[in-house]
Amino acid sequence: MALYTQLLMREAANDPLRVGIVGAGKFGSMYLAQVIRTPGVHLVGIVDLSIDNAKHSLERVGWPEEQYAAPSLDAAVQSGATHVGEDLDKLVCHPAVDIIIECTGHPIAAVDHCLKAFENGKNVINVTVESEAFCGPLLAHKAEEAGVIYSMAYGDQPALVCELVDWARTCSFPIAAAGRGHIWLPEYRESTPETVWDHWGLTAEQAERGGLNPKMFNSFLDGSKPAIESTAIANATGLKAPSDGLAFPPGSIDDIPTLMRPTSEGGVLESKGLVEVISALTTKGEKIPYDIRKGVWVCVEADTDYIKNCFEEYKVVTDPTGRYMSLYKRWHMIGLELGMSVAAVGIRREATGAAMCFNADVIATAKRDLKAGEILDGEGGYTVFGKLIPSDKSLAKGHLPLGLAHDLKLIRNVPQDGSLTWEDVDVDTTLNAFRLRREMEALFEVPSEAAATSR
Fold first, then answer.
1. 358: nearest Cα among 231, 244, 217
2. Does the chain have fewer CB atoms within 10 Å around its N or its C terminus?
3. What is the DSSP letter of 290?
4. How far apart are alpha carbons 60 and 66 in whole angstroms?
5. Confidence (pLDDT) at 101
6. What's the distance, Cα to Cα, between the start and end of the chain in Å?
């Protein structure tokens, strides 16, 4: 039965899915704009470090003030309104809440929030993909142990890629590669929050109007976010990371089948079954028409002559051999689509993507020459960017995951483009995020050969 039909049935029975949100920033605000109009879902509570900012977000997306005036969570459950507060424990521990949506964007805090939700029997949709990238496999393992659902967020590109990969495998297509789009030039590696809007195509005024965080958007531009999301895709699908990181080949949507072939067949892949990101800019910085910048794709192979002939008969756009084709979504709508995860988790008890292995890692890499004594400021900042590499390579060299490169003091110099290691930084070993990462490294020391298949 369709999810929407089941939501209508929940609405008619006065038995809504009850949801709590942690963090009311841009992603959270986009979901807030939709959930107030979604049948069968009741947003019981919002927790944010700033109640005023959370209420401003609700006002900006069109909520009437009386809808978020519930004085407590109990009152919200009884009235159908929403309570806005600062107490995470009360939200996560409330017996009426079914699903916690973690969308703070702070990877270390996100780990704490997910663990607390698991301990209290709550399903979790983790929007903070940065935490998914450095310890998602163990978070999924912890959720399974607790008997709850842990899911990536539909609307973000990793979950949409997982959907396309699932389509391909369910239809028995061998997968050549899968991934997302981007705009890319090598000099973007050095971008900072001060330069991001010049490259992104927005004015500072447009960014301020939309409440856009320059550090977060810079993490997209400098390649960190594509690496983070590609890591999440690889670990949730079993696809592999390229041995030397993402190549960002430029191309249009129609170029995908030609690009996403092994080099031995005229493409750019070192092997089949990889994650990759396609750039919407030529190497000279010119825009490519009919681009996949905001979208996702999967490239599949016709492994028999009959299927190849079917591609030809149905006028499918393929590579020159006629054997590779792609399926894609040209856009992703971020928090506006999150309702798909809420319904899938709450009704079907199915994740819209979750880590199944530890194939890939995203490591902190110096944007410039870094000196001992400097403080790392994480993805999108002034000090480091993220690079995608295979997890076995990362573990063997003791690389520092990007998600933990926040507020850490350097104890050694690191040259520009140097990949940081644990030995380069002073780490707070009491953090849950650090302990989980180390536990995950021990649990997934050798990625499963079965999980790494390209089929």
1. 231
2. N
3. S
4. 14
5. 98
6. 28
* Residue found under tokens 């903070």: 128
Distance, in Å, from the CA atom of 278 to the CA atom of 385, rounded to the nearest integer, reads 18
DSSP letter (8 states) at residue 43: E
| CA pseudo-torsion sign 112, 108, 344, 360 | negative
- What is the Cα–Cα distance from 395 to 361, expressed in whole angstroms? 9
Q: Rounded to the nearest 5 degrees, what angle is found at the Cα of 435, between the Cα atoms of 425 and 127?
A: 95
d(CA 102, CA 67): 21
d(CA 134, CA 243): 18
Give me 260's structure tokens.
């996403």
Q: Distance between CA atoms of 75 and 97, rounded to whole angstroms?
A: 13
* Cα–Cα nearest to 342, from 12, 21, 80, 14: 21
Per-residue pLDDT band at 203 (split at 50, 70, 90):
confident
Q: What are phi and psi of 176, to 5 degrees?
A: -80, -45
Contact in structure between 288 and 282 (CB atoms under 8 Å): yes
Contacts of 432 (CB under 8 A, 6+ apart): 108, 111, 112, 115
Which pLDDT tens digit goes with each residue over 6-45?
999 999 999 999 999 999 998 999 999 999 999 999 999 9
Backbone φ and ψ of 295, nearest 5°: -115, -170
Mean pLDDT of 83-99: 97
Q: Of 341, 127, 326, 95, which Cα lies nearest the Cα of 232?
A: 127
Q: Is the dihedral of CA 437, 443, 445, 446 positive or negative?
A: negative
Tokens at residue 124, please? 């979790």
User: Quick check: 358 and 22 in contact, CB under 8 A?
Assistant: no
Q: Which helix (H) or strand (E) holds 388?
A: strand 384-390
Half-sphere exposure of residue 175: CA atoms within 13 angstroms, side-chain side: 29
Contact 178, 298 (CB under 8 A): yes
pLDDT at 448: 38
- Alpha-helical (H) ranges within 94-245 are 107-119, 129-146, 157-170, 196-200, 204-209, 214-221, 224-237
Helix, strand, coil % (nearest 5) of the chain?
40, 20, 40
Closest CA to 345 of 31, 124, 121: 124
